[in-house]
Amino acid sequence: MASATEQPRAAVIVPIYNAAAVLRDCLESLRRTLTADDQLILIDDASSDPEIGALLATFADQAPCPLRLERNA
């Protein structure tokens, strides 16, 4: 894993607004592709779909790299 002073190998930013099926596919692809040396930033733009929260919680437990989740109100 990259230390605090090292830059990640890749940083991926994913904007989210509903579309749970698309998000599920996206997160599965990222889980297979990213490594501990990468960084992932997920930005939820106040999704109204309750499945989004469940997907993000499950993915956070399985994330292959440092994960940051931002939520817009």
SSE pattern = EHEHE
Low-confidence stretches: none
What general form does the structure show? globular
Rounded to an integer in angstroms, the radius of gyration calculated over CA atoms is: 12 Å
Characterise this structure.
The chain has 73 residues and is of the alpha/beta class. The protein has one domain. Helix content is 37%, strand content 23%. The chain is built from two helices and three strands. The chain has helices spanning 20-33, 50-62, and strands at 11-16, 39-44, 67-71. Strands 1-2-3 form a three-stranded parallel beta sheet, with no helix packed on it. The chain is globular. The protein starts with 10 loop residues before the first strand and ends with a strand.
Write a brief caption for the model.
The protein has 73 residues and is α/β, with parallel strands linked by helices. It has helices at residues 20-33, 50-62, and strands at 11-16, 39-44, 67-71.
Outline the fold blueprint.
Elements: E1 11-16, H1 20-33, E2 39-44, H2 50-62, E3 67-71
Parallel strand pairs: 1-2, 2-3
Key descriptive features of the protein:
73 residues, alpha/beta
